[in-house]
Amino acid sequence: MFVLVDCNNFYASCERVFQPQWEGKPVVILSNNDGCVIARSNEAKALNIPMGAPAFKYKKQLKQQGVKIFSSNYPLYGDMSNRVMKILEKYTPNLEIYSIDEAFLQFKGFDLFNLEEEGQRMRKQVRQWTRLEKELELAIEWVLHKLDAINIPYIFVAGNHDWHYEGMKGTMESLRSKWIKNRLLPLYQGNNPLMAKYDIKGIRFLAIDNSTYQINDEQLVFFNEQIVTGIPIVLLVHIPMYAPGKNISYGCANPNWGGASDRNYKIERRPKWPENGHSQTTFNFYQSIFNAPNLLGVFAGHIHQNSIEIIKGKPQIVSDDNASGGYLDIDFLKLKEKHLNKI
């Protein structure tokens, strides 16, 4: 279990610790040389004072609305941050400081603990020892918070470690169903978690969950229905499709995938892959993908490194893991008329 600790309006909260008369009142913090707004209390946000607002442009408004203005005090914020992190590291040795006011905590091996109670105890202790308010967010809430902040379209496809960690009991299918229902569901924006279509600027993105390495009959029917529309399609999956010459991690429809090639099931403490390998449905899915005339390409992840393969003339683009900062920026360019005539 991962928990994100995020101090509320950190810079403004730090100033209020030493000037408590400003609790419940609008506060903003200005950047170096008092150039622009870099932090706001909730009350200042409610007054529609934007982040990054130039101080000279909003000076009159801030005065009229009774907003307290502080010059930034980075030694203070750094000291308060250190106090918070010292408290957090008492709860778990697995602490990753993400920023001055955010940290990830991993509670691995805490199966006998009530983590919700631990979280509330942590929050209370930080408040008592520093007088700062903070929020505890599980990974899903943190992701949704960040997606809402950037306000751009997104598509979520589950990976196997979104629903499985070492030692969880159950089949891959049952664990996926359980954790989609219990935690992941808000990320799907009301769509079917196992298969969904998203039309963006003339391209249809198909999100199909193959995080168990396999495809079911309903997913295959869904994919084939989309192909016959003739709309340009990009397939989004987690497990890369089989690519000749690549290792077993390119596991979806890999003819070598199965019990005999599963070397990690003991380490990951999960059921062994089926001894008889993939279902025929999964192999049929593979054939449908790479025979589809309107498929632009396949986007995948899982292997934690960038890779591009051409499979039967179709590109498969695999991204590095986002947890270590990996991402790909891909542009779709419309073909010019002279090139269209050659297709």
Tell me what you see in this structure.
By secondary structure, the chain is α/β, with parallel strands linked by helices. It folds into three domains: 77 residues, Reverse transcriptase/Diguanylate cyclase domain (Alpha-Beta Plaits), CATH 3.30.70; 56 residues, MutS, DNA mismatch repair protein, domain I, CATH 3.40.1170; 188 residues, GpdQ, beta-strand dimerisation domain (Transcription Regulator spoIIAA, 2-Layer Sandwich), CATH 3.30.750. It is 32% helix and 19% strand. The strands form three sheets. Strands 8-9-10-11-13-12 form a six-stranded mixed β-sheet, with helices on one face. Strands 5-6-1-7 form a four-stranded antiparallel β-sheet. A three-stranded mixed β-sheet has the order 3-2-4. A hairpin with a 2-residue loop joins β8 and β9. α4 runs antiparallel to α5 and α8 runs parallel beside α10. It is globular. The relative contact order is 0.08.
